[in-house]
Amino acid sequence: MIIRGKQNRYLRSQAATMKPVVQVGRDGISDNLLKQILQLLNKDELIKVSLLQNTLVDADQLTEALTELDGGVSLVQSIGSKVILYKKSSKIKNRKYSLELEKI
Questions:
Q1: CA of 55: how far to CAs of 13, 22, 34, in Å?
Q2: How large a percentage of the chain has pLDDT more than 70?
Q3: What string of DSSP letters covers 45-85?
Q4: Average pLDDT for residues 89-98, to the nearest whole number?
Q5: Is the model's pLDDT at 44 over the cut of 90?
Q6: What pLDDT score does 41 carry?
Q7: Strand, helix or coil at 15?
């Protein structure tokens, strides 16, 4: 999904107060980590991921691995060790942010 400027701004504002729900550590990117992130994205649509200091992974590598697994994942923002990811939920009851994005 392509996120336009105003939509991106809205998602960044919503994620500003979020705490990271996933941490990527020394082990880097594994299949279990990617599955966990995709499950969280399907449930919440917008999540914040923290890249720990001892990891060799950067935001681009994480986003690339997720988009290879599921093409609907979008990188909203990456600042330092924090990465904000968005994916429209497949379940209608979990769509909170995507409904707002359609209005923008």
A1: 27, 13, 15
A2: 99
A3: SEEEEEE-TT----HHHHHHHHHHH-TT-EEEEEETTEEEE
A4: 89
A5: yes
A6: 93
A7: helix
Distance from C-alpha of 53 to C-alpha of 44, rounded to nearest angstrom: 26
Q: With CA atoms as reference, report the closest residue to 53 among 81, 79, 33, 27.
A: 81
Backbone angles phi, psi at 74, to 5 degrees: -125, 140
Could you tell me the two tokens for 19? Answer: 């705490």
* Displacement of CA 75 from its chain's centroid (Å): 6
Domain boundaries, the chain: 5-89
User: What topology does CATH give the domain 5-89?
Assistant: Translation Initiation Factor IF3 (3.30.110)
Query: How far is the C-alpha of 73 from the C-alpha of 30, rounded, in Å?
Result: 17
